[in-house]
Every structure is written in C-alpha cells, then in structure tokens.
Write a structure and sequence with these properties.
heterodimer, A: alpha+beta, Phosphorylase Kinase, domain 1, 2 domains, 7 helices, flat, B: mainly alpha, Rna Polymerase Sigma Factor, Chain: A, Arc Repressor Mutant, subunit A
C-alpha cells in the first residue's frame, strides 16, 4: 500500500468504515510512514477536538416541557375528544346552533373544496395502482430528463418540470400521459429501491405552497401547488422518504 | 391519528433524542431561536410520520426529519449559504497544516473551533456534526442527508481539510506548500 492509497482511505480508516483486511494494510503503512502517520494523528486529534462536550449545544431549559405540551395539544386536537359538563350543555347547544347557521355557508364551501381534494386524492391512488398493474408504467421509458420533458410537447398544453434525483437515490424511470380531474395530465415515474413513485402534474388556478398528505389503502399521497402547478406524489414508500422526495421536487426550479 | 398510547410510545422512543435534534438544528441554523422552532416543527412532523416508523433506529430516523426541516428553513431564510457550489472532490494531500500540538492549542480556544465549524458550508457542517459529534456511520449519514456513501466520505474529507486549514491558522500554515 502506498501513500496515495492511504490518503484516499484514511478517512474511512479513522471512521472505522474499512474492513478488517484494509484496516491491517492501513495500520502497517501508517506505522512505517512518518508522513501518513502525521496525517493520521491530525485526524485523531481533530476527532478529539470536535467531539468535545463544549461544542455540543444543549437544548435550552424548558424546551422539553414546551415540546411535550405542544405534542399533547396536537395529538388531542386530532383525537377530537369532547367533554362538556351537563350544566353547560344547554348554552352549548344554543351556541352551537348559532355557530352552525353562521358557519354553514363557509363550511359548505370548505367541504366542497376539501371533498374535491379527497376525490382527486382517490383518483390519484387509483391511477397509481392501475399504472402498476398495466404492462406499461411509462410511455417514454428514460432516465434522462432531457428525453422525458420534450416528449410531453404537443401532448399537453403545458410543460412539466422534469428533474433527476438519481444521485440522491430517486431514479427517474420515465413519463406517461394520464387523465385526472377531467383533464390530461403528466405522470412522472420515479423509483426508490423497489418502490415506484408516480408524480401527477397539471396546471391549476390556485397558488400556494402548503403540502397536504393523505393515506389511502396503504399508499401515501402528497399534494402541493407551486406557481399555479399542482403536484400529486403517490407511493407505497415510507412517508418520511416520500416527503424528502416531495421536498426536493418542490425546490426544483 | 395518534392516540394516547401512540403518543406515549412516541414520547418514550423519540423524545430522548432531543439533545441530538437540538444540537444539529442549532449548528445548521446558527441561532437559538430558529433552532428551537426547527426542533418543534421537526417533532410535530415526526409525530405525524410515527405510524410509518418501523422501530429500527430512532435517532437517525429523527435526525433525518430534523435535517430536512433545517434545509427547508435554510432555503427559505439563508438561501445564499446554500447556493455555494460544493467542491465534492477529494484532493489528497492538498493541505499539510501544522503539527497536532498546534491544533490542540487551538482546541483550548473552543471559540475558535466553533467559528471554524460555522464557516463550513451547511452541507459540510452537517456531515461533521453527524460523524464527529453523533458518531453515526457513513451509511446512516448517507440516509439522513440523502446522498451516496461515497459523497459522505468526500464531504468529510473536504470538511476536515478545511477545518485543519482554519484551525492551524496563518502562523503555522504553508508546511507542505
């Protein structure tokens, strides 16, 4: 083993990432070579310096309590546990009636909007499942974004953003035409290990950044809208990684 | 929907990593206030995703969420820090900084070390935190930062050589020039 090889592997060596055989080779060379031995010693010292407690930021007092309180609150809100004492019940009912009437209009509007989302979410999952069952997942099978993007030209009245995240483990598999929300849409297909991710893209009049998540039949669905384009990502991938993927896509220009 | 038992399990499994979460967030955001916001946001997200967590190793799992929340925060608030082109290549033997003693001397001034870490681009800073302070493996760091294992190693190499340059200071540099 020479100095150049040693320099290449020295970080793996100090981080105990090399196998037994390489370790022995490294140890032998470092023992014999003063220059590499110096480099090794510097890395060892650096680890001692950086792992010193004084550099580790301790959470401020009370953060854990604030966090616990917030988690309880969120989790209670989601559980919707309602407890009302009998003496308040009458006033409660009256107040509820008033609120009910006042709120009906807005409620109707919101439910209409959210049930519309629900419906699209349902369609998105159905489309995803169909794409996995059919013999062709992609109309244009290619991992090259410069092949996939132009393929949509002339087939859609918009040009979807096609990005490649192969270096981060999300491989572009190709594109496909699909039909959702009563219009033709672009479907981009990605793979993460054995999991397929379908991303459905089409223009919308709405704007905004908020991401909504749905879980349907074991699939996770992420929806967000950016620059008047709506994105629906669906997969059986774990939600954390899917979120990571959505985050990368959202930040692609 | 998280129920009482689910929340209790979450608190038991994920809350013990609060220090690791805070340390990472504090190093990436650079101040107490934003670090606390990011940590709170991360825990709310973690609770939401807890159903999908299969219970392998909760610390890297939580740190993945903290890391992503940090970088979303960076993109929104410190975009200039992120737009720096990263040099991912390992340049072997490019720096031959001073002897270990001079670094130890620098270590005595931990404020200097702190400043040196803060000067690293966030992508390099995070691998240093995860490796040197959290003692995570390359594989775990790769999963957290969503980069290949080879990139973890090259970023560590770059970050360390940059730190060596900064810590050995102008007075002892130039040995291997």
């Amino acid at each position: 083993m020479n100095c150049r090889e040693t320099q290449e592997l020295i970080h793996g060596f100090v981080d105990s990432e090399l196998g037994l055989v390489w370790n022995l080779e490294m140890e032998r060379h470092i023992h014999e070579c003063p220059s590499c031995s110096g480099a090794h010693e510097r890395l060892r010292v650096m680890h001692t310096v950086l792992s010193d407690n004084s550099l580790y930021f301790q959470p401020p007092a009370g953060l854990e309590d604030r966090l616990r309180a917030r988690l309880r609150k969120v989790s209670r809100a989601e559980d919707r546990v309602w407890t009302i004492s009998p003496s308040w019940r009458g006033i409660g009912i009256a107040a509820a009636l008033v609120l009910c009437i006042a709120g009906t209009w807005q409620f109707a509007m919101t439910t209409q909007r959210s049930s519309n989302k629900e419906m699209i979410g349902q369609e998105v999952v159905a489309s995803h499942v169909r794409s996995l069952m059919a013999t062709h997942l992609t109309d244009v099978p290619s991992s090259d974004q410069h092949t996939v993007k132009p393929w949509f030209n002339g087939k859609l009245d918009f040009s979807p953003v096609v990005a490649d995240f192969a270096d981060r483990g999300f491989v572009l598999d190709g594109g496909r035409l699909d039909y959702l929300d009563s219009r033709p849409v672009a479907a981009l297909v990605y793979r993460r290990r054995q999991h397929v991710i379908n991303v459905f893209v089409w223009p919308t009049l709405q704007s905004g950044w908020g991401t909504q998540t749905f879980d349907r039949q074991g699939y996770h669905v992420f929806n967000w809208t950016k620059d008047h384009v709506t994105y629906w990502a669906v997969s059986d991938l774990n939600p954390e990684e899917l979120w990571q993927f959505a985050d990368m896509l959202r930040n692609t220009e | 929907m998280p129920e009482k038992a689910e929340l209790a399990r979450f608190e038991q499994v994920v809350l013990p990593h609060l220090a690791a979460a805070y340390n990472l967030a504090r190093w990436i955001t650079g101040n107490d206030h934003d670090a606390e916001d990011v940590v709170q946001e991360s825990y709310l997200r973690a609770l939401k995703f807890f159903g999908g967590f299969r219970g392998e190793n909760s610390r890297p799992w939580l740190l993945t969420i903290v890391r992503n929340t940090c970088f979303t925060w960076l993109r929104q608030n410190r975009f200039s820090e992120l737009s720096v082109e990263l040099d991912e290549e390992i340049h072997t033997g490019e720096t031959e900084p001073g002897n270990p003693e001079s670094m130890l001397l620098a270590a005595a001034q931990s404020e200097m070390v702190r400043k040196a870490i803060e000067e690293l681009p966030p992508e390099f800073r995070e691998v240093i935190i995860l490796r040197e302070m959290e003692d995570l493996s390359y594989k775990e760091i790769a999963a957290i930062a969503s980069i290949p294992v080879g990139t973890v190693m090259s970023r560590l190499a770059r970050a360390r050589s940059r730190l060596q340059e900064l810590l050995s200071g102008p007075m002892t540099s130039g040995v291997g020039a």
